Amino acid sequence: MTLIRSGADSYVSAHGDTSYGVEHYDLALTYALRRNHLDARATLTVVAHEPLQRIDLDLQHLHVDKVLVDGRPAKHSHLRGRLSVRLLHELPAGGRVEVVVLYSGNPKPIRKRHLGTAGWEELEDGVIVAGQPHGAPSWFPCNDRPSDKASYFIEVTTSSDYVVVANGELAASTRHGRTTTWAYRQDEPMAPYLATVQIGKYEVQEVDGAPVPTRLVAPRRLRERLDDAFGRQADMIATFEKLFGPYPFSGYTVVVTDDDLEIPLESQSLSTFGANLVRSDWGAVRLVAHELSHQWFGNCLTATSWKDIWLHEGFACYSEWLWSEECGEDTTHERAVAHWEKLSDLPQDLQLSDPGPDLMFDDRVYKRGALCLHALRLTVGDETFFDVLRGWVAEHRNGGVETADFTSFVEARAGGGVRALFRAWLDELELPPLPPRR
To answer: How far, in Å, CA of 188 to CA of 198, rounded?
Structure first.
């Protein structure tokens, strides 16, 4: 009998299973806003990585009504957030099976010690889904590990008074009187934590001049203020395409909720901001750059393990500094020097390459990761540095990455002289000095 995994990643315990992968999720949700009630059907195309007699999925707080395996009812148990499905016969390594889960209930965020809450959450008048890092099982059964990327088709039926936004491109919007069904297709592989649904009384505005189809989705009351934060969204995409390579998805959507949010939310092909961030000051604009850059670093290239979170957040923080120089604020080097001085006064107890679950979202991971990239840039020069970034994205497009992949990639293109630099910035606790500026 196949052993039940207690979790594929030590940072997010009891989530994910490495014995199989999901190739495609087809999610059909019917959601009643006033009752916060979900009736749903999830169809998963599963491929075995080793011989399997059962498949263990992540699903929390919701009731499983029925499970089918290749169209036939299957025995299952649902305990402590793990849905164990008994297969009809042993599935050999490389074999595929279709698992259908019918489920219902009142979705709510998942709370974990050290990581806080994440998942499906009610707004004053709508819904957001904040999946990072453990919120996906709050609304659909999944293999919740960042290394298991799949394509998605997400269909949501809800009151016609509301607009629904999900990952990827809108495939159809069909009104049935009081309800409307919104269907989105995300063909590029996506980790479960990046899947999202946003529901609100929104208007959709197209952004002119962007290199890819770009939309701003926001309440009517904020329409006249959107340019304060997002007026240069088209220029920002064009700048990042020049620095990192082509935008990795078919389009980009920004959702602005009617509520205030503590932080913006990252998801694939889509970012979500609170109304409080519709401002023109650098504190708000830098977050617009940060979330956009995650489309390259975090969404297209996704760390296979949460210990390598700096490959997302360090790159996104450095993108803020790059945009700062592009838009006429402080130069990238000025930002780097200022943040190095701040970090030098903080405790020197963080290992960037493996910060641990308590510190994975510590601001030092973001800033030290960005400083590591700036140190690399100062060492190898601008031409080599940006060639490396574009090549890194191109070679690992739509895949999973690890810190060792990045350091090996850089060494192959910039020489072994960067090995000591990476060891100092990634593996040692003491903050290294920045190399002299060329």
So the answer is: 19
The span from the CA of 157 to the CA of 322, in Å, is: 41
Please give the average per-residue pLDDT across 238-262, as a whole number: 98
Closest CA to 21 of 156, 201, 136, 142: 142
Domains of the chain with bracketed CATH: 1-196 (2.60.40.1730), 202-295 (3.30.2010.30), 302-427 (1.10.390.10)
291 is catalytic: yes
Reply yes or no on whether 383 is catalytic: no
Q: Is 361 helix (H, G, I), strand (E, B) or coil?
A: coil
Catalytic residue among 121, 188, 266, 291: 291
By residue count, the chain amounts to 438
Mean pLDDT of the chain: 96
Task: Name the one residue in this structure whose structure tokens are 């595929």.
Answer: 96
pLDDT given at position 1: 30
CA 434, CA 438: separation in Å to the nearest integer?
12
pLDDT tens, position by position, 102-130: 999 999 999 998 889 999 999 999 999 99
Strand order in the sheet with 76-79: 52-58, 82-91, 76-79
- And the tokens for 225? 């203020």
What pLDDT digit, counting tens, does each position of 144-174 carry? 999 999 999 999 999 999 999 999 999 999 9
Beta bridge partner(s), residue 48: 20
Strand ranges (DSSP E) for 167-202?
169-175, 179-190, 197-200
pLDDT grade for 415, boundaries at 50, 70 and 90: confident
**pLDDT number for residue 7:** 66
SS3 assignment, position 115: coil
The Cα 436–Cα 362 span in angstroms is: 27
Query: Minimal CA–CA distance to 249: which of 132, 170, 168?
Result: 168
What are the binding residues for Zn(2+)?
Answer: 290, 294, 313
Mean pLDDT of 27-53: 98
> Model-level pTM?
0.96
Helix (H) or strand (E) holding 288: helix 282-293
Q: Smallest Cα–Cα separation from 129: which of 215, 195, 213, 51?
A: 195
Tokens of 204: 């959709």
The tens digit of pLDDT for each residue in 388-402 reads 999 999 999 999 999
Cβ atoms within 10 Å, residue 400? 19
| Helix residue spans in 182-272 (DSSP H) | 226-230, 233-244
Nearest residue to 195 via CA among 237, 160, 144, 261? 144
